[in-house]
Amino acid sequence: MVRTQIQLPEPLYREIKRLALQQDWSIAEVIRRGAVNVVRHYPHEKLTPGEDFRFPAPIRARLKVSDPERLKELLRSGQELTL
After folding, report:
1. Dihedral angle over CA of 7, 20, 79, 56, nearest 10
2. CA-CA distance, 56 to 41, in Å (whole number)?
3. Angle at Cα 39 formed by Cα 27 and Cα 12, nearest 5°?
4. Residue 18: how many other CB atoms lie within 10 Å
5. Integer Cα distance of 65 and 67 in angstroms
6. Could you read off the pLDDT tens digit of each residue along the chain, which spans 83 residues?
């Protein structure tokens, strides 16, 4: 992994920290997941001047998990999950 340093507005940092605590993730994991989301959804083509990027609407779904602790363990280990 590459180590980097960023500056965040205080309100955004507080929300990231809240989410990290709520999900039992590190702050770095929240940032990585957010970056992955931007890269996946951002168009590959350059936007025309004046055109604003908009994320697509979130997918509303619930994942049924029989063993939440095992799922956390897999997510932390970085192993590929198959559903």
Report:
1. -70
2. 8
3. 35
4. 11
5. 6
6. 899 999 999 999 999 999 999 999 999 999 999 999 888 877 677 767 777 777 777 767 666 767 778 777 877 887 665 65
